[in-house]
Design a protein that fits this description.
Elements: H1 11-18, E1 24-28, H2 31-43, E2 51-55, E3 68-72, H3 83-89, E4 90-97, E5 102-104, E6 136-142, E7 149-156, E8 159-167, E9 179-184, E10 190-195, E11 207-209, E12 213-217, E13 222-226, E14 232-236, H4 240-243, E15 247-254, E16 257-263, E17 301-309, E18 314-326, E19 330-333, E20 336-341, E21 345-350, E22 356-360, H5 363-369, E23 388-390, E24 394-397, E25 405-409, E26 415-419, E27 425-429, E28 432-436, E29 443-445, E30 452-455, E31 466-467, E32 471-475, E33 480-484, E34 489-493, E35 505-507, E36 510-513, E37 527-532, E38 547-549, E39 588-595, E40 606-608, E41 611-615, E42 620-625, E43 630-635, E44 645-647, E45 650-654, E46 659-664, E47 670-675, E48 682-685, E49 688-691, E50 699-702, E51 705-710, E52 719-724, E53 730-734, E54 755-757, E55 760-764, E56 771-775, E57 810-813, E58 819-822, E59 835-837, H6 854-859, E60 870-873, E61 878-885, E62 889-896, E63 904-909, E64 915-920, E65 925-932, E66 938-942, E67 946-952
Parallel strand pairs: 1-2, 3-4
Antiparallel strand pairs: 4-5, 6-37, 7-8, 8-9, 9-10, 11-12, 12-13, 13-14, 15-16, 16-17, 17-18, 19-20, 20-21, 21-22, 23-24, 24-25, 25-26, 27-28, 28-29, 29-30, 31-32, 32-33, 33-34, 35-36, 36-37, 38-47, 39-67, 40-41, 41-42, 42-43, 44-45, 45-46, 46-47, 48-49, 50-51, 51-52, 52-53, 54-55, 55-56, 57-58, ...
Length: 953
Amino acid sequence: MLGLPETGAASFVTELVQNSNLQVYFQSESTEEVNQVRKLSDQQGLLGQRIFADQGKNNAIALASNLADVIFVQPPSTKPATQQELLRVLRPQGTAFTPTYQITKPVPEGNDYWDHPYHGPDNNPQSTDQNARSPYRTQFLADPKFSPMPEVSVAAGGKVYKAFGHIAHKQNQNAILNTLMCINAYNGTILWKRKLPEGFMIHRNTMIGTEDALLMADNESCKIIDSETGEIRDEIVIDEKLADGPVWKWMGLQNGTLYALIGNKEVKVDTQKSARRGLGHWPWGMWKGHDYSDPKKAFGFGRTFVAINPATKKVLWHFRDRDYIDSRGVCMKNNHIFYYCPDKFLACLNIENGKQVWKNDDKKLLASIGSNQKAQHYVTGYATTNYIKCSDDYLFFAGPQRLHLVTASAADGYLMWEKEHGNLQLVLRKDGIYAAGPKETGMKLDYATGEKIASLPTRRACTRATGSVDSIFFRTRGGTVRLETDSHSAQHIAPMRPPCQDGVIVSNGLLYWGPWMCGCELSLYGHICLGPEKNSAAPASQAPPRHVAYGSDLSKVEPLAARNGDWPAFRGDNRQSSTTNVSIPAKTKLSWTAQVTQSAMPTAPVIAGKLIFVADRNGVVTAFDMQGKQVWKQYTGGAIYYPPTVNNDRLFVGSADGRVYAYEAKTGLPLWSFRVAPEQRWIPVYGKLISTWPISGGVVVQNNTVYAAAGIAHFDGTHIVALNAETGELQQENNTSGTLSATVNSGISLQGSLYIDENELRFLAGGVYEIARYDLQTLKCLNTPRAEVTSQYRTAFYPYYPNYGKYLSIEHTLADRRELVHDASYEGSAFTNLTLKEALPPGAPKVKKEVARWLSMRARRTGEAFKRKNLWIDQKQRRFTSFIVSPETLLTAGHPDEKSDAPFLTAIDINQGTDLWSHPLPALAVKGGTAINSEGTIVVTLENGQLLCFRKE
């Protein structure tokens, strides 16, 4: 929405949201209008949830391209938005309404659909989409974050359809077991869900997307599901007498005719929920039905092909074979269906009349194809995977069940050539066969001879390969390898790897990853979409200035009277040491409570000059006095994930709108703001609108300099700035560390909160580099570039995954060199008990642990290089979201293991390991959510939006 219909009509926006399911981005050139919308939305609990408001020019809408379903333009007070800008922001088939005209965006020429599970009925996962070209930018990150097994996806008509299967390996997958979803292809909104029948194994070719419907077949019928409503529009049932049974094994759509393989009832699969916490890392194994021991009951085996008119449901022809056909070995191209009966024959049908064109039982061919091998293993892949593909002239056998890559003639089925390794994921392109394989088996091959043209990077494990117009995508050791086909260079997309069964789907001019059923060294989880960088944002020349000063003299601010012993930064100081020299009271009592927010998670608190400062994920900064009374409140454009920092009477905060803000700490008077983000480009991230380059790691201040970092993923760019704390003017900038290695186009992703250590600015860097390191004076990146296409580090970044990234580890050395130790894995599934260890022997090196602690959990079983006596071990199995270490007492907040509904604030005697006092909390403390002032007053922010104060009793 651009502008208000009249001054003071902010209610127009809130009422629109309250009377619809819309999420609204409001933009106006008027500061007054933006403030009105923010304040009223905040009062009604809508700000940062369903309403997002920011200031900007009408001809530079701050949304990414192809994002908005609808645009409302109010009569402009100044220059109106251009049609070009409205069409840029609208998604295809979206509509803009202006005072003088209405315009609908057409579907761009060159968009392709991924309308069958393997792109088309030929099973060749090669898109013809002309618009999904590199370089890329993030289009959206969306729910669902995690997937049960298996997962099948198709995309058509501006929608992505995802079917989720019957096995959950972690608790976070239970909610969508046996579920079908329809998702807006351009902004990730889940449009509708419906339950799938239990007992039917969905990993097969029985989903087809069309312009206005989804064809979804199961063990009873083919449902024609309306794409807009999710309601069953019609149903196609095949007479059991015609086909041994009612179960749909395979289907393909060509030129408006539906073709299917129908047959016997199958082994019913059991729905399996999980009680395991954390992310991924699930066990493999053959589950019920995957041994394929009996073709009469095995998944996908049938004997009857049919051709159907979907409009009339009339069977146009049927063909029945004597033997059982494996639907994993069925594909269709041009006018032919090719099908395979294991160990018996390969055959071809004419789809116009259902007549058999040829049948080949040549012994040499069958020996080369070989018997079906066992799969269902992280190296080989899934037993249910299709293993046949076709081009105009050739048939190809390869995949998890195959020992050899075999090529036969499409004209008669006779063997053309074979290769030794069969566990290859094929993508068929005009310039050759791209065969992604494990170790050194990956190669590009000539169609006619099978001769090797080039080697391919190693494919890691099971995930299938797919192709776009300029790239081949498959899994590497951590992340995605993008083989650039023109240059044959290997590029690295580090934060996510292709999802297990789907691979990277290319459709609607965009690329889609996820969600995942595993957590293999990922930084980003969810349904993730990338689009072409070209024309993905408003022209930079039309964007508002990066630096804005709100006063003429920024050197003078009202004194705050900060004191030693205050808690002015996240976890106490720029090192996030969580330490204080103030004594924690021997007894405490609850003094007061305040509600920071009703609708969003607050940040941790900071304390300075007898004021408490808290921000929240609605983009609000609030100051309270030490009695819990609100002193001032200010708004930013986006979520605030980490607390403000107070320095020299000023308060600084980073917002997900891509800007750093400075306020007079005592009064909240705005001083200046600076946009670290290179452009104004907002995208949906798990249901909220934020910048493509959010300030998601907080800010740190040292020597009158404010340091901030902006970004989500390295391929969008990672931007680091040093700003003058007094004026907000830019002192230094680094915009290049997102691409540290030009060879593989990989670099640093912002995946942790900012801190200063050893005179370096640092934060977690994503999968390739564990810690990002920058020189404080020059902002030069100090990480050594790595040109390998590989990731090894894990993160679950708290801003985006607060359920997983909230647990803290501690490795604190006391004055006498004894050590407080507690390890929490990055996703909260593995912990050690809090322990006080004796001092290391003189000269003994301290064991370095990875930040994610995942490998630490494994390493602890192998023992330490220097065995140290445990002086005490906490036996209460407690997990912690916050620590404050004082000279004699450790203040903790957390919950007992497996009892997140019993949160506590507890003080522990460091010498004895015993509890001095403990208070139950009404909700869990946020990450780092405790603070203490010079008088020993303790404040805690909770996930339910409350602020609690405890004082000495």
